[in-house]
Amino acid sequence: MFDEVKFSHEYFMRQAIREAEAAFYKDEVPVGAIVVVNNKIIAKGHNQVEMLNDSTAHAEILALTTAYNAFGSKYLPEATLYVTVEPCLMCCGAMYWGKIGKIVYGTTDDKNGYRKFTSSSPLHPKTEIVTGILAVECAKLMKDFFKNKR
């Protein structure tokens, strides 16, 4: 029973939210991501676009790079990527080429998420997508961040 609760989508999304909070406190857009294989977190990342002065330094890209290095592989079909916000097209492209097995995201992103730009999935055909996990908490971080910017 304990393991079922511990290793739920909510459990892992809370870990991604911790990464998003780290970005928030560094004045980065608060997106966090983790990569999980066999119920073990193998990589973490949060947005570092401002810090690295790199428009590609999204949470998903940084977490995937760490995961590829950890596994010594460019493919992760057994991995699940948890991300607090719907991925953009760039990140979806990276996930497509990495053949990520499952993507779980919290809140939608009507402005920059992949669904804005395509009606079909830009992800690998075998990739499973789960949405809406802790969406309220994930959306609140984004709203609070941008409210402070205005």
Automatic annotation (TrEMBL):
Coiled-coil region(s): none
Cofactor: Zn(2+)
Record has Metal-binding as a keyword: yes
Cofactor binding, per record: Binds 1 zinc ion per subunit.
GO molecular function: tRNA-specific adenosine-34 deaminase activity
Catalytic activity from the UniProt record: adenosine(34) in tRNA + H2O + H(+) = inosine(34) in tRNA + NH4(+)
EC number: 3.5.4.33
Top-rank taxon, per record: Bacteria
Annotated Pfam families: MafB19-deam
Gene3D superfamilies: Cytidine Deaminase, domain 2
InterPro entries found in the cross-reference section: APOBEC/CMP_deaminase_Zn-bd, CMP_dCMP_dom, Cytidine_deaminase-like, MafB19-deam, tRNA_aden_deaminase
Binding annotation for Zn(2+): 58, 88, 91
Domain CMP/dCMP-type deaminase: 7-117
Keywords: Hydrolase, Metal-binding, tRNA processing, Zinc
Keyword Phosphoprotein annotated: no
Active site: 60 (proton donor)
Family: Belongs to the cytidine and deoxycytidylate deaminase family. ADAT2 subfamily.
HAMAP family reported in the protein's UniProt record: tRNA_aden_deaminase
Assembly notes: Homodimer.
Function of the protein: Catalyzes the deamination of adenosine to inosine at the wobble position 34 of tRNA(Arg2).
Protein name: tRNA-specific adenosine deaminase
Protein species of origin: Parasediminibacterium paludis
